[in-house]
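Contributing new records

If you add data, match the layout below exactly. Sequence lines come first and carry their own label; structure lines follow with theirs. Keep one chain per record. Anything else will be rejected by the validation script.
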Amino acid sequence: MLKIHKNIIFDNKQKPIAVQIPIDEFDQLEEVIENYGLAKLIDEVQDDERLSLDDAKKYYHSLKNN
């Protein structure tokens, strides 16, 4: 499990308003979130119709032209 070293920032009424984490840990969190999102997207489109290479190229070119 990813260990996160956080510093909680409080306002003048001692209400927590923000969290600071080291940039290295932020980068790791960002990578985990991106990988999770990509895995979810792959799962969502797994049963979608697949295009042939020629059809995919035609579709890509139509996007560029519009």
